[in-house]
Structures are given as C-alpha cells and as structure tokens.
Specification:
two-stranded parallel sheet, two-stranded antiparallel sheet, elongated, about 200 residues, 8 helices, mainly alpha
C-alpha cells in the first residue's frame, strides 16, 4: 500500500504496524504530548522540531491508511496509552471503520432480496450494529411515550381516581416490556439477521 500523501519519509509506511507504533512512542517521548497536540506558531523557518511534529502527526494517518485490524488495534492501544492526544481516538475509530470495510463480506443475493422485501429486517454484522438497533428502537419508544397524549400514562397504575385525588404507582417491568413490544418500532418486531 502506498504511503498517504504528505507522509515523510515514504519508507515509513512500509514498516509493520507495531514498528510504526513504536516509532510514534519514541517521537512522543522525544517532543512531548503538548507538541503533538498543539500547533506552535511558525517563524517562517522549518526546523528539526517542526519536522518531528509533522512526523508525529503523520504516523497515525499511515496506520489508518494501512486498513488492517492490526493497525486499528495498535491505534487503540496508543489512544489508551496517550489519552491526552485526542486525535488518536479519532484515528483509532477511522482505522477500525477502514478495516471493517476492507474485511466485509458481501451479502448473499437471497439475503439481499429478503432485506429489500421487508422494511423491518436489519442486517447485524457485529455487536455495534445490534447496539445501534436497540438504541434506535428505545429512542423511538421514548418519543412515543413523551409526545402529546403519549403512552407514558400507560406505564403508571392508578387507583381510586377521583376529581381531586388519585393514587399512582409505576407499572411492573413486564408491563413496560409488553408496551414496548406493542409499538410498530418495538425491539421484538425486528426480524434480526446475523452472520
């Protein structure tokens, strides 16, 4: 894989992922975290410190462009090792997305037809997709609860309703679950397809 544009020197992109990470650690130890995070004012002349800063900013991009799971793992480890360098967290997520796209397997035609025919079918490839679906469903349910004349009243039991006095207490957990699954966007309404 060729080095991304702007990387210096170009041969660094040919190093294994662990070696690039070790090189990054050496650079950060040499110039400090503040020099990596903060862009100093330039005097117009490029010195050795400027070159080291540029290299430290380029190395994570080289790892992202490698597009391997190893590169994503190394970037995540670097982001945990240097929590003050927020760019590493962003680069680790980008590397994970790049690696996932690279290793994604195509959907079989039969599965694709099933997905196209039914709007409620979702393709779940990993736990992140499942979490997204659960959170989307709960978000839609929360909106249904809180809209005008929403369902939130159905989650409370009441007794002796009178003009000026009513006793209220929360419904049981099963009542919440039943109410959630009755919704057209409920969790149990999704026909989940997994690999």
């Amino acid at each position: 894989m060729p080095a991304p544009s702007g990387s210096w020197p170009n041969a660094v992109a040919l190093l294994p992922e662990r070696d690039v990470a070790d090189f990054y650690r050496l650079l950060v130890d040499q110039i400090g975290i503040d020099a990596v995070v903060n862009q100093p004012l330039q005097s117009g002349f490029i010195g050795d410190d400027d070159r080291l800063r540029d290299m430290a900013r380029t190395l994570p991009n080289i790892l992202v462009h490698k597009g391997t799971l190893e590169a994503a793992t190394v970037l995540r480890a670097l982001s945990e090792e240097y929590p003050g360098i927020w760019q590493l967290r962003v680069d680790a997520r980008a590397a994970m997305r790049t690696a996932a796209a690279r290793y994604a397997q195509p959907v079989e035609p039969e599965q694709l037809i099933r997905l196209a025919d039914t709007a409620q079918l979702r393709w779940i490839a990993d736990e992140r997709h499942l979490l997204d679906i659960v959170l989307e469903s709960l978000d839609r349910f929360a909106k249904a609860l809180h809209r005008p004349n929403g369902l939130i009243v159905a989650l409370w039991n009441r007794a002796r309703a009178g003009v000026n006095h009513t006793e209220w207490w929360p419904c049981w957990e099963e009542d919440f679950s039943d109410e959630e699954t009755r919704q057209p966007c409920g969790l149990r309404r999704w026909a989940v397809t997994a690999r």
